Structure formats: structure tokens, C-alpha cells
Amino acid sequence: MSQGHTCLDGEWSTDPSWWEVDGQGIPLVRVCERCRAQKLGQYRPEILRHYDQSDVDEPIDEED
Cα 46–52–58 angle (5° rounding)? Predict the structure, then answer.
């Protein structure tokens, strides 16, 4: 079941949407086909694929 989300230009949308996750499976942002490219463009490309400490300049929390 899809939920509503804030789409392009802050417009509320009920288009089918999903959570995009980073390379570690951490949810980043809710997107639909219309806003996916714009919203993911705000993130560093290396976090959208599998990454480790050498790829980012900040600590990564260990998994429990």
C-alpha cells in the first residue's frame, strides 16, 4: 500500500511511492517516479551503493 509523500516543489502527492535506501539499507527519503531523481540528487553518490568507512568522511555506526 502506498502512502502519500511530499513530491516536487513541496506538493503533496498520493502517487505510488516507496522508501529509497542507501547502500547499507538505511531509509533515506520517500519517492515516486516523478521526484526520485531530484530527491536522490541531494545525496552523495557513494552512499547510494554499498559503502564503508573509507568512502565517507564520518563515523559509521557498527551493527548490533
Answer: 85
CB atoms within 10 A of CB 45: 9
Q: Which residue spans within 1-64 are E strands per DSSP?
A: 5-6, 12-13, 18-21, 27-31
- DSSP secondary-structure letter at 35? T
Within 13 Å of residue 57, how many CA atoms lie on the same side as its CB? Answer: 1
CA distance 57 to 5: 30
pTM of the predicted structure, to 2 decimals: 0.69
| DSSP letter (8 states) at residue 40 | H
pLDDT digits (tens, 9 = 90+) for 31-52: 999 999 999 999 988 888 876 6
